[in-house]
Amino acid sequence: MTGLRYVYAVCRPFGTPLQSQLSGVAGDPPRALTHHGLVAVVSHVPERDFSEEPLHAHLEDLDWLTETARAHQGVIDALTTVTTPLPLRLGTVFRDDSGVRTMMEAREEDFQRTLDRLEGRVEWGVKVYAESEQQESPRPARKAASGRDYLRQRRMQTRSHEEMWQKAERFSTRLHENLSAFAEDSRLHPPQNPALSKATGRNVLNAAYLVPRANSEEFVELVDRTKGEVPGMRIELTGPWAAYSFAGEAI
């Protein structure tokens, strides 16, 4: 089959085959391309969509981008069940197999070093959301009888919000410290923009944790035990993922 080479990830050779029905970007099944003890997982994609100019235009198309990202992530998820992949950026494309092998050779030391560090480990994501006072209580505010009464109500609302955010900050700080002590490594990411995530509440913790695969069940139990500990705090656990947050410049 002709076409450009779309690269999902670099990993070490793995004995377990990927799912036979797995479909990659543009519907082409992924395959393994071996070079010097490393494997690039690639598939063929049409030049009309993935050469430089059309790819740049497609990246502005939210529907196309969503579909492509879903297919890309599907391959990464499948790889994560059988090996430790280093995911490459969405839209990493080369002219042919030779171009992929040249990239692998140029970055071989970095890939091997990062794979040594991440072997047998996965990433778990933990987010904490603080629900606002309005979301917690459906009761409407009492109408102010005077200007002075209005100012008093505003001061009380401000104080209530400040106390809530302080409580959320203390809870998320303590949770992050406990999870970081259990994990081998952790990363704090910027809080999510609610307009983009569509999640309710204010995101006060957005963190990733590097955990040995063998310890994942214990990590999940540790997170689960904190749910419901503090009213108004919602915890969201995702994973296990390929170790995106810990691959450094290898990705």
Q: Compute the separation of the termini in Å.
A: 27 Å
- Describe the global form: globular
In helices, the fraction of residues equals 40-55%
Count of individual beta strands: 9
Give the strand content.
15-25%
Q: What is the count of helical runs?
A: 9
Helix/strand structural class? alpha+beta
Describe the protein in words.
This protein is an alpha+beta fold. It is 41% helix and 24% strand. The protein is built from 9 helices and 9 strands. Strands 1, 2, 3, 4 and 5 form a 5-stranded antiparallel β-sheet that branches. The protein has a 4-stranded antiparallel β-sheet with strand order 7-8-6-9. A hairpin with a 2-residue loop joins β2 (31-35) and β3. The longest helix has 36 residues, at 147-182. The protein is globular. The two termini are 27 Å apart. Mean pLDDT is 87; it is low at 133-139.
